[in-house]
Amino acid sequence: MALPSEMKALLLVGDGYTRTPSAGALEAMEPYLRPGSVALPTPGPTQALIKVNLASINPSDVAFIKGQYGQPRVQGRPAGFEGVGIVVATGSDPYAKSLEGKRVAFATGVSNWGSWADYAVAEAASCIPLLDTVRDEDAAAMIVNPLTALAMFDIVKHEGDKAFIMTAGASQLCKLIIGLAKEEGFRPIVTVRREEQIPLLKGIGAAHVLNEKAADFEAALREVMKAEQPRIFLDAVTGPLASAIFNAMPKRSRWIVYGRLDAEPTIIREPGQLIFQHKHIEGFWLAEWMRQFRDRLGPAVLEAQKRFSDGRWSTDVTTVVPLDEAMARLPAELAKPNGKVFIKP
Amino acid sequence: MALPSEMKALLLVGDGYTRTPSAGALEAMEPYLRPGSVALPTPGPTQALIKVNLASINPSDVAFIKGQYGQPRVQGRPAGFEGVGIVVATGSDPYAKSLEGKRVAFATGVSNWGSWADYAVAEAASCIPLLDTVRDEDAAAMIVNPLTALAMFDIVKHEGDKAFIMTAGASQLCKLIIGLAKEEGFRPIVTVRREEQIPLLKGIGAAHVLNEKAADFEAALREVMKAEQPRIFLDAVTGPLASAIFNAMPKRSRWIVYGRLDAEPTIIREPGQLIFQHKHIEGFWLAEWMRQFRDRLGPAVLEAQKRFSDGRWSTDVTTVVPLDEAMARLPAELAKPNGKVFIKP
Question: Quick one: closest CA in A to B240, which residue?
Answer without folding.
Answer: A267
